[in-house]
Amino acid sequence: MKLSNKAYIIVFSLLVAVSAVSVFTGSYKPHKTAKIYKDGKLIRTVDLTTVTNSFTIDIDGKNTVCVEKGRIYMKDAKCPDKLCVKSGSNYPIVCLPHKVVITVDE
Amino acid sequence: MMNKNLKLIRLSLFTACALIVFIIEAQIPPVVPIPGIKPGLANAVTLSVLYLMGGRAAFTVLILRIVLGSFFAGTPLTLVYSLSGGISAFIAMVINKKLTVESQIPAVSICGAIFHNLGQLAAAAIIMKTCAVFSYLPWLMLSAVATGIFTGFAALYSVRILKRRF
User: Fold this and answer.
1) Is the Cβ–Cβ distance between B35 and B48 less than 8 Å?
2) Cβ atoms of residues A89 and A102 within 8 Å
3) Helix, strand or coil for residue A46?
4) How does pLDDT run across B46-63, given as a tens digit for each residue?
5) For an interface test with A, which of B23, B70, B75 has the most A Cβ atoms less than 10 Å from its Cβ?
6) In the 8-state DSSP scheme, what is residue A3?
7) What's the maximum distance between 2 C-alpha atoms anywhere in chain B?
8) pLDDT above 70: residue A28
9) Distance of CA B82 to CAs A92, A104, B74, B75, Å?
10) What is the pLDDT of residue B108?
11) Do A83 and B34 touch (CB under 8 A)?
């Protein structure tokens, strides 16, 4: 049995539509608690709404996390691509080389 | 029957070609701040070999390219992510090849790209022991369709030109 181009176009456009909808609906959520995971283990929880003075957290000398009121971001990372630094405050922040994940829950 | 030496030379050339594309691609700075988004042009080589020389040859080129590529241009974890992505993409492409004709290579390529990203996400979820990485899924699916079309047409035209020589 051979599949027609039409079948593929329908499946792919459905996939694109579903992805686009979840991308646009999922990005504007109020957030409160940040959780920092290293190697799958929760190492630190920060309540972002109660932060008054911004501070930094050092993770094994490899990642520097900066916490401000209402937001958290990767300030520096010791890896070549620095994708987690460039991703800013798009949650979750993922650092593949150092196995660090930062999630933010409501 | 294809000459054994000829086959060896062709496989080596395809592997070298895939490796060069893979390494050059790794040097391009990321366009979007999301891990795992890249053109995936090396897959065009795998796909061409799949259509020109069959599944076994394509699998050889794929595995050699990933192992050597991670060795030359990547961290140790690159190997794990690339292998899981590459093998799941390969399986998806072999199945889809059976369901299509040659002019539908772009569709096969998109399926490959989608399953490459799924395989890589699964590896990331296992390595980092969190399901949080799956929130990247919609972004990765959008990029897979876009880059899949691109590499698919690259493979289609390569196959059409190279077929005259095979």
Assistant:
1) no
2) no
3) strand
4) 999 999 999 999 999 999
5) B75
6) -
7) 51
8) no
9) 22, 28, 10, 11
10) 94
11) yes
Does the distance separating the beta carbons of B132 and A101 come in below 8 Å? Answer: yes
pLDDT digits (tens, 9 = 90+) for B9-23: 999 999 999 999 988
**The tokens of B129 are what?**
């022991």
Task: Calculate mean pLDDT across residues B98-117.
Answer: 92
ipTM of the complex: 0.76
| B33 vs A39, A83, A101: nearest CB | A83
Cβ contact B141–A16 (<8 Å): yes
Quick one: tokens of A99?
């196995």
Concatenated DSSP letters of B95-158: HHHHTS-GGGHHHHHHHHHHHHHHHHHHHHHHHHT-SGGGGGHHHHHHHHHHHHHHHHHHHHHH
Distance CA A78, CA A88 (A): 16
- CA–CA distance, A43 with A28 (Å, rounded to integer): 26
Phi then psi for B30, rounded to 5 degrees? -60, 135
Q: In this predicted model, what pLDDT tens digit does every residue of B124-152 receive, in sequence order?
A: 888 877 777 787 888 889 999 999 999 99
Interface touch A8/B132, C-beta < 8 Å: no
The greatest distance separating any two alpha carbons of chain A, rounded to the nearest whole angstrom, comes to: 65
Residue of A nearest to B121 (CA): A96
Q: Length of chain A in residues, anyone?
A: 106
pLDDT at A27: 55
The reported pLDDT for the residue numbered A19 is 87
Burial of A66 (0-12, 13-18, 19+ CB in 10 A): middle
CA distances from A19 to A25, A94, B35, B145 (A): 10, 20, 17, 11
